């Protein structure tokens, strides 16, 4: 049985602020994938919405690192102001700045050694 995706209480305010700023915002419900897909004028930004005390799953940390390594803008936001900063290209935090869950739910959700060392592709640092 699959559980419904949990949404943080701040998400509606984040979505509203982005839409008022002219962004098209789609909520995404896929395991490990950021919560919001934001598009405007050919620009795409992925946002993970967390509460102030929210934690990242290890699978999320790994996927965020892979997306950043591929050149995708991915940020973690806790307020509408942080979301607006992120879409301006000034993210306040990324998955590496948010505490991760101490143990994975399954072996598949565990981060690879490259991600634990801060590298998305196993070769160099994540930028």
Describe the protein's architecture and organization.
It is a single chain. This protein is of the alpha+beta class and 127 residues long. It is built from four helices and four strands. The protein has a four-stranded mixed beta sheet. The N and C termini lie far apart (37 Å). 29% of the residues are buried.
Keywords:
127 residues; alpha+beta; 4 strands; 17% strand; globular
What can be said about this structure in brief?
The chain is an alpha+beta fold and about 130 residues long. The chain is about 25% helix and about 15% strand.
Write the layout of secondary structure elements.
Blueprint: H1 11-20, E1 24-27, E2 36-40, E3 43-49, H2 58-69, E4 73-77, H3 80-87, H4 113-116
Parallel strand pairs: 3-4
Antiparallel strand pairs: 1-2, 2-3
Rg (C-alpha, Å): 14 Å
Mean pLDDT: 81
Residue share in helix: 25-40%
Gap between N and C termini: 37 Å
Q: Give helix and strand order, one letter per element, not per position.
A: HEEEHEHH
Q: Which of globular, elongated, flat, extended, rod-shaped describes the shape? A: globular
Sheet having the most strands: 4 strands, mixed
Structural class based on helices, strands and sheet pairing: alpha+beta
Q: Please work out how many helical segments DSSP would assign.
A: 4
Detail the poorly predicted runs: none
State which percent range the strand residues make up.
15-25%
Sheet with most strands: strand arrangement: 1-2-3-4
Number of separate strands:
4
């Amino acid at each position: 049985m699959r559980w419904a995706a949990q949404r943080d209480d701040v998400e509606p305010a984040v979505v509203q602020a982005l839409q008022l700023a002219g962004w098209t915002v789609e909520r995404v419900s896929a395991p490990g994938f950021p919560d919001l897909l934001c598009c405007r004028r050919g620009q795409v930004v992925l946002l993970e919405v967390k509460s102030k005390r929210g934690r990242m799953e290890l699978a999320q940390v790994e996927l965020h690192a892979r997306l950043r390594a591929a050149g995708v803008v991915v940020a973690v936001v806790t307020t509408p102001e942080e979301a607006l900063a992120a879409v301006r290209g000034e993210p306040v935090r990324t998955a590496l700045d948010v505490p991760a869950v101490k143990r994975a739910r399954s072996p598949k959700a565990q981060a690879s050694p490259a991600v634990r060392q801060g590298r998305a592709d196993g070769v160099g640092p994540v930028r």
